[in-house]
Amino acid sequence: MYTHSLDPYRPRASVVHGLDPRVKLGLTLAFIVTTALTPPGAWPIFIVLCALSLATTLLSELGVGYVLTRALLALPFALVALPTLFTTTGMPLLTLPASLPLTLTVEGVARFAGIAFKSWLSVQMAVILVGSTPFPDLLLAMRALKIPRLLAAIVGLMWRYLFVLADEALRLLRARESRSAAAHDGRGRRVGGSLIWRARVTGGMVGNLFLRAFDRADRIYAAMLARGYDGEVRALPRPPLRAGQWMVLGMGLALLTFLALAGFLLWG
Amino acid sequence: MLFSPVPMHIPDGFLSVGVAVVLWLIAIGVVGYALKRVNADVGERQVPLMGVLAACIFAGQMLNFPVTGGTSGHLMGAAIATILIGPWAAILVMTCVVGVQALIFQDGGLLALGANIVNMGIIGVAVAYFTQRTLRKLLGKWSGGLFVNGFISGWLSIFMAALACALQLALSGSSPANIAIPAMAGIHALIGVGEGLITAGTLVFIKAARRDLLETEQRQYVGGKAVWIGGLVIAIALAILSPLASTHPDGLEWVAEQRGFLDRAQGPLFEIIPDYVLPGVSNETLATILAGIIGALIVFGAAVGVAYWRRNRAQSSGA
Q: Of A87, A99, B46, B213, whose CA is between 20 and 30 Å from B36?
């Protein structure tokens, strides 16, 4: 089977891969909501959530290193929360030298750590979800969550041609690489054209990609018509959830609700 | 390179639940209306076109150009989508792009997806449409008009989306308004130049190669007036709110606290481990360290338990 490097799905024979995609999507969303609802200081709840995500990682056989490093992707965004370290009022922890009138507070550190940790935990679960579920199954799960048919149809088609167009974009980049100079050569000399010129070249590439997409859409439409497309996107009926899967869903939701309630009652 | 370079996709954990839910509701309302419009407005022919264009915008975000040093200019795509297929269809296409980025590539969170759809899909498209339609009237048949139009609508769509993003973060208490808003605005004023130049270059290229695609854009879209007004209102509201919020951050915090958005510690109802230290251990530092060790042991225990269970299962199935 042909797999694209962009596709995050990693086929394994694990318990998590075997779960129904609807159960997985529902539990992932519930996990993320629970994490978001947990108040900043509720470290015991965070520890349990962390244990849950680590356990799921191990069960999914995706590799702890893979999941944890991929989950770090969202971390650069934590920069925007950095000022909370100093602006939150509370017990002073550390005052920077007089030239910088900044005071690190305990509350500030707790809030920043809470935000970064929540983000990291949520991304871990999302990484496990897409690593263990092929996209068509995810689309089926989304339809079970009642996303509109037209939107599901667009997303389905988008996924089908995503890799084709990503490959075209890479070909365009390679063509530019071989024909037009970079901004600077290795020795710091300016070799390419001006900034406006480079931007216009890139604009031309994007335009080219769009034109190819338009032409491709025409051909796809013709092919769909030839196979009986009448404006209605049809899909196989979804198989009913088996009792075991219902049980996993119910137990997972109960546990997460309990954690959310505990966090709210004890620390909220 | 695989991940969208515009640092505007809010990950989970940065928005408070209240803000995230309100933005989800707005996103569902507007996207639902857009679906209705597109269903009524265009034929079944548009469905494959919108799917392929969504894939195209995703792939187009991989194309960059070197600016200086290690930085480069990139594309979000809302302005191009708006001019090529009209505002309502563009909202749907951008929603799909942002949704797939969040779900599959963890570029932006799932709880925060509503906010990201509002910023990049709805605000980006509405502001771009407002700018394009107004400038087309003002610039008329001037030959450089398309370039100027592409640049300004591209720049403005990025800039306004960034302002909205900063306001949401400030409302959630994740970043103080007087720092987040100027910082996001400053960074995206620069990033927007890249977007604007690429958008302008794209339009000029398409005009040279396939003039007919841009001529469809001359026709008035059904319900376009509503988007035009929406874009105007959003632009004015953000232009007034952002400087206000950043000069009076306390005002925004006050609003946030009044609405209960800030999940500040309000004093727990009861405590098991008072002040995060263990009961019965008098030395506070020691108790904190012990609490940390116990936490680590719980996580480690869960991991070891799962690993054992899996090994036993593998052995019994292998035997």
A: B213
